[in-house]
Amino acid sequence: MTFYVMTGPQDPWYPALADDPIRLEIPGARRLGPGADVVLLLTPDGQPGAILCLAYTATLPAAVEDLWAPTDAERPYAVGYTIWSYQRGYGRALLQRLPAWLRTTRPTVTRLVTLSPCTDVVQHFHLGNGATIARQNETSINYEYPLDPTGNPNADVTGIRETRCRDGMSR
């Protein structure tokens, strides 16, 4: 498995952004613009195994619009706002490698969080991969992953309760 950072519209994997099952409304140029990265975990034969889109923010976002709020402040939040896999296990493996990459390439990042939909499947995925719930918003949930190497990527997920956003709806 190889960790790979997309470089722009000329990147050979740029067309794969159209496969995003969650945030189709976000154009590729925005995903790769200032304050953003797209990272991939490639399979041994060089194909994408999983893709994760990140935005760097000054505050913990509650909605997609918050991801690109103009600011002159530092951006200590690395926000994963969509992830998808082409092969089983690659999403998890990408999340396990991401903290080390952030520590070495983005030293001002102090928190790794998500901007996730409120669904039981999403909750099971994130809690099962070592995240905790940082905040429940009206229509989204922020999960937080440890950036330090002692974080536990194999958290016990027994007893997970149904996810509810603050608006009371289960998704």
Work out the strand percent: 25-35%
State the separation between the terminal residues, measured CA to CA: 33 Å
The Rg value, from CA coordinates, equals 15 Å
Low-confidence stretches: 151-164
Major sheet description: 7 strands, mixed
Strand order of the largest sheet: 1-2-3-4-5-7-6
Would you mind describing this structure in some detail?
This protein is of the alpha+beta class. It has three helices and seven strands. The chain has helices spanning 28-31, 90-105, 120-128, and strands at 2-5, 36-42, 48-57, 77-85, 111-114, 132-136, 141-145. It has a seven-stranded mixed beta sheet, covered by helices on one side. 29% of the residues are buried.
Features:
171 residues, alpha+beta, seven-stranded mixed β-sheet, 7 strands, globular
Give a brief description.
With 171 residues, the chain is of the alpha+beta class.
Write the layout of secondary structure elements.
Blueprint (H helix, E strand, L loop, with lengths): L1 E4 L22 H4 L4 E7 L5 E10 L19 E9 L4 H16 L5 E4 L5 H9 L3 E5 L4 E5 L26
Parallel strand pairs: 4-5
Antiparallel strand pairs: 1-2, 2-3, 3-4, 5-7, 6-7
